[in-house]
Every structure is written in C-alpha cells, then in structure tokens.
Design goal:
3% helix; 127 residues; seven-stranded mixed β-sheet; single chain; four-stranded antiparallel β-sheet; mainly beta
C-alpha cells in the first residue's frame, strides 16, 4: 500500500494562492489515481479533485473549477493541487488519497473509492 504525505498548507488571505504537494512512497505511483479531498470542522469529507494514472483525465468539484488545478509528476512520485483565488470557504484540512478505482467522476468523488490516505495539511483562508 502506498504511503502519502501532504505538505504546503498554511494561512493565507482571500485571493491568494497555495500549492499543495502529495509525496508518495512504498508503491508504484503511476499505478494509482490520486484524489484530493477536504474536511472542514463539523463537516463531512468532501471531494475536491482527482487525476488519473497518466494525468490525462481530471475531475473537479464545481466550487473549485477554474481556481484549482490538479497535476502529477510520476517521475517524482508527487501530485499537486494548485489553489488560486482562495476563498474563506476553502478553509479545511486537505487530504490526498490514492487507489486504482474506475476513473469516472461518480466513483472518484467518493472517498470510499480510495484506500490510501495522507495525514492531511491545514489550509486556512482569512477574509
């Protein structure tokens, strides 16, 4: 099972940007699709974005389309989430996940489709 470590979170003001990284080890990174999820206090974990094994397909939740970009570098065993024009409602702990699900939006938007998870990184956006 692949191990995942997120980094890049922090405190920013509304309108600013952050880039989250998800470093993988212990598995063949290119075999896994990557999902980013987030969880705000008192709320359920929600889907943010997902990228297929080769990076050729991506999905985003509607609230981040046009602002966030998911990408991956299989040579570096790392996935990224570039977050631009951040809003206070983006405040949450962000988790990356990995697995080999059927890569369609109805599947990869469900956290139960992913078996490996990182510990999360906090993103706080002040108004």
């Amino acid at each position: 099972q692949v191990q995942l470590v997120e980094s890049g979170g922090g405190l920013v003001q509304a309108g600013e940007s952050l880039r989250l990284s998800c470093a993988a080890s212990g598995g063949t990174f290119s075999f896994y699709a990557i999902g980013w999820f987030r969880q705000a206090p008192g709320k359920e974990r929600e889907f943010v974005a997902a990228i297929s094994w080769t990076g050729g397909s991506t999905y985003y939740t509607d609230s981040v389309k046009g602002r966030f970009t998911i990408s991956r570098d299989n040579a570096k065993n790392t996935a990224y989430l570039q977050m631009n024009i951040l809003k206070p409602e983006d405040t949450a702990v962000y988790y990356c996940s990995a697995d080999s699900p059927t890569f369609v939006d109805s599947v990869v938007s469900d956290p139960t489709a992913f078996g490996s998870w990182g510990q999360g990184t906090q993103v706080t956006v002040s108004s």
